[in-house]
Each structure stands twice: as C-alpha cells, then as structure tokens.
Design a protein that fits this description.
heterodimer, A: 4-stranded mixed sheet, 4 strands, B: alpha/beta, Rossmann fold, 9 helices, Mopterin_synth/thiamin_S_b (chain A), ThiS/MoaD-like (chain A), Thi_S (chain A), Thiamine biosynthesis protein ThiS (chain A), Ubiquitin-activating_enz (chain B)
C-alpha cells in the first residue's frame, strides 16, 4: 500500500504497524517521534497502530537547544 | 510607579485588543513568570514578556555571555562578554520596561531548587539548552501544578508546546507532559546543543516570540491554549504545523502507573 513518509509517497508492505515501519527504515526509535495524520503516536501504541493506505507519516526528531 | 496616563500610552496597542484589554493588561502586570535559560530563545522571549508588561520575571541561567552567543542572543552586546547572562538580561529588560520587576538568578536549576523556585511563580517558560533540564522542569511543573510553555530549537527547526499535565481535557483524559513526547533516554543525550548541531539565529527569535505569545495567552486567557498540541516549525521549508500530542498512558510521570513520585531521579 502507499503512504506518504516525510512528504514523499512510498510503497510499503500491507499490515505494517508503526513499530514495523521504524524497523523497515532503520529509524533511531529512541531519538524520534512518529507523527501519523497530524497526531503523535505514543510510543506505547507503536505495535497496536496499524498503518493505513494514504497515511501521512512524519518522523519528528527531538530537539533540545535553546 | 508610572502614572495611569503613561501606562495607558505604553500598553495602548494591547488595550485596544479585545482579547487583552485593561483586564488582560492587569493580569500581565500581576503575573510572575519564571524563564529557564537566557539564551537564544530567552532573548526574544524575555524582551517580549517585559515589553508586554509582565510584572515579575525571574531568569535562571548559570552561564556567561560569549562571543559565539551574539549571533542569536540579541539582548547582549560585546560589552557583556564574560558577564553573567541572567544579570545582563535583567539590566537590558529593566531599561526596556522599568514597570517590570526582573530577578536574575545566577544558578543552575537542580532537583534541590526547582520545586521552590517554580512554586513561587505562576507560569514557567523553558528555553534551556539540554534535555536533562527539560525533564526536570517538566516534572517540577507537574508536581507544583504550574503551566509550562516549552520551546526548543536545533539547526533550522523549532518545536513549541504547552504542558498542563496536572489537568484533564474536556473528555476527562489527562493532558500530556513532555514525557508523552520525549522518552527518558534522551535525558543523557548532551550532544544536541547549539554548539554541536548549529542553529540559525533568526529561528531562535521566531520560537522565542511564539513562546512569549503562548505565555501571554496563558496569563490573559486569550485564544486557544497549546496544551495537548505541538507546533513544529521548519525554517528551511518555511512551513509550520500544529499537531495533536496525546497523553501516553505509559509515561512514568502522569501515566496510569506513575513511577516518578518526586524529583529525586534528578538529584
């Protein structure tokens, strides 16, 4: 199925959860948050949150500077 | 104390705003704001809070001004190099608006002083430069039930959120705290400050100004609180978006089974 990741349309496997997405793209899970359709996905919901066709996903990197 | 006529003139542009007006201006004058960090965010944040007539502003920062700060920390001049940031900022702000009582605190926020210091204020604005302090501020604001307007910058990116984790939303769900966004492991990350990653100066001005606006909104009740939402500013793309930040029931501070009961983990 197609999703939009960081503004780019990509093809991913069906039945992928957020956890699977992080593994697939080898993202640094502890340093980023995942935003799905304009909402942060809580870390505790990565396994239960199944991606759907046309989901818009953004990887949000934590920043701490001031 | 300046006379009423001078006050009316100084805040004339606020007084005509129906969301602020005389009542809002009085709330600003009565407000006690604690600003964590007098750096890039602090520069515009502090200047706009003082200019707006916030009555009491405390600034905690244990650093001194260096030449590399002047690229973005526009409260300071070359004459300030080597001097404490909190004191330099206080001097600038007192000149900007003598109506404000400015209290510089040349110290680091720690587990020992955080709770008492925050307790003595109505609202906290965090513009510090490290994750460990951000967690400490978040936890201390939760325990003292004080609203926290938190801004962060890095490279060309900015993030802004308001945390009222001690309250529930209209559905009865707790508002998120910083720990619903950032996991504990980031507390030990210290290679992401401005020195290591770089920061475009003007971006700190934008985020500090947005932060000042959210503080003013919390004090006056104007508009919609950012609580439960996160603003993400992308300076390179020139885009901003506001997204929902839900409460994470597993977070250790205000989750279903909290494990953080006091500030001892920060000692």
């Amino acid at each position: 199925m197609n999703i939009v990741l960081n503004g780019e349309e990509i093809l991913i496997a069906d039945n992928l959860n957020v956890s699977g997405l992080i593994d697939f793209f080898d993202l640094p899970a502890s340093k980023v948050a995942v935003e799905r359709n304009l909402e942060i996905v809580p870390k505790s919901a990565y396994v239960t949150t199944m991606l759907k066709e046309n989901d818009r996903i953004e990887i949000v990197h934590f920043i701490g500077g001031g | 104390m300046p006379d009423n006529e001078a006050l009316t003139e100084r805040y004339a542009r606020h007084l005509v705003l129906k969301e602020i007006g005389g009542a809002g201006q009085q709330k600003l004058a009565a407000a006690r704001v604690l600003v964590i960090g007098a750096g890039g965010l602090g520069a515009s944040l502090l200047a706009y809070l003082a200019a707006a007539g916030v009555g009491h502003i405390s600034i905690i920062d244990d650093d001194v001004v260096s030449l590399s700060n002047l690229q973005r920390q526009v409260l300071f001049t070359e004459d300030d190099i080597g001097l404490p940031k909190a004191a330099c900022a206080a001097r600038f702000l007192t000149k900007l608006n003598p109506d404000c009582t400015i209290t510089p605190i040349e110290a680091r926020l720690t587990a020992n002083n955080a709770q008492d210091l925050i307790e003595a204020h109505d609202i906290v604005a965090d513009g510090c430069d490290n994750f460990a302090t951000r967690f400490l501020v978040n936890d201390a604001c939760f325990f003292t039930r004080k609203p926290l307007v938190s801004a962060a910058v890095g490279r060309f990116d900015g993030q802004l959120a308001t945390f009222k984790a001690y309250e529930n939303d209209e559905k009865g769900t707790p508002f998120p705290c910083y720990r619903s966004l950032v996991p504990e492991n980031m507390a030990s990350v210290n290679d992401m400050d401005c020195a290591a990653t770089g920061i475009i100066g003007a971006l700190t001005g934008i985020l500090g100004s947005l932060q000042a606006l959210e503080v003013i909104k919390e004090i006056t009740g104007a508009g919609d609180s950012l609580a439960g939402r996160l603003m993400i500013y992308n300076g390179l793309a020139a885009t901003a978006r506001v997204i929902r930040l839900p409460w994470d029931p597993t977070n250790p501070l205000n989750g279903d089974t909290p494990t953080i009961k006091d500030l001892s983990i920060h000692a």
